[in-house]
Amino acid sequence: MDLVAALMHPAAYPEPTREVALIQTHISWVFLTDNFAYKVKKPVNLGFLNFTTLRRRHHYLKEELVLNRRLCPDIYLEVLPIVEGRRGVRLGGPGHPIEYILKMVRMPQDRMMDEVADRGELRQEHLDRIIARLVPFYAQAATGPRINNYGEPAIIAYNHEENFSRTEALAGELLPRALFAEIRDFARTFLSRHRPLFLKRIREGRIRDCHGDLHMKNICLADQVHIFDCIEFNHRFRYGDVAADIDFLAMDLDFHGFTDLGRYFVGRFAEASRDPDLLQMLDFYKCYRAYVRGKIHAFTARDPDQPEATREQARDTARAYFALAGEYAEAGARWAA
Predict the structure, then answer these.
(1) Which helix (H) or strand (E) holds 162?
(2) Whole domain around residue 50: which residue ranges?
(3) Are 254 and 117 in contact (CB under 8 A)?
(4) For 29-60, how does the pLDDT look when each residue is reduced to its tens digit (9 = 90+)?
(5) ∠ CA(141), CA(37), CA(250), 5° rounding?
(6) What is the Cβ-side half-sphere exposure of residue 238, based on CA atoms within 13 angstroms?
(7) Whether residue 39 sits in one domain with residue 125
(8) pTM, 2 dp
(9) Out of 35, 111, 140, 269, which residue is the most buried by the measure of CB atoms under 10 Å away?
(10) Residues 298 and 170: beta-carbon distance below 8 Å
């Protein structure tokens, strides 16, 4: 049975809908009905995530529901079984589950932060609203000895070195070898030289169960600010310094040409959260985030299953992210000198 084809039929859904649209990512299928969005996880194992069994997919959908309700309690609704009966595939109801699906309220596409920004409508007031949601979120987010481990310099260094080992072969292809070395040396030097700062962050409770994927495509600027699609599949990508989360969005603003708004966002957040030391981490974590985004696009560029036009666009995007990471490394090295 072709599950994706079956879920393209409006009759599969518990509420009336005129049509169903499909969006794919490398780890999920998202089905859009008139008023809701439904997500099914693909049975993939990418190393840092493993959705290869029904039990795992069910578990991580439930994790996604609980974790995203922290910032979007009205958007993330429930996890439903997908069952197959005489009338075909249906969501919910009696029967043996052949798969599970996450039901969410569909948000207005034209209010997504990246689309608001593309239209030239993004303002400081929008960032103030985001900050007003994030400050209490981080204050209430889980912390403690287990989570604090992810703020240890050794763990942070591991995350960086993993990136460098997986991308060293790209040096000379999608980024100059000298730029690769500059970024790597900056990360290593900053971690070594500022070890007391990282330990201070732990003592002050700045290591939290964060969002992990805080960029413009995951923020909706509707009547309420909805910050959605956090990382649920790997603690290592979600547990960490609040600064690493905040700097992800700041980097995204920089990348899309909104440097002044990015600077405003970080400064206002540091003030509102009473965390002036966050500003000292700015170039370090923005460099890390830009490099990771470069890595992701570089892997897409090397994927033989992708169309050549997609691969070429991914190559250009990867080069741009790596160049931005180099700018942060250069600025951070000057500050640390």
Answers:
(1) helix 153-167
(2) 3-106
(3) no
(4) 999 999 999 999 999 998 888 999 999 999 99
(5) 45
(6) 21
(7) no
(8) 0.93
(9) 269
(10) yes
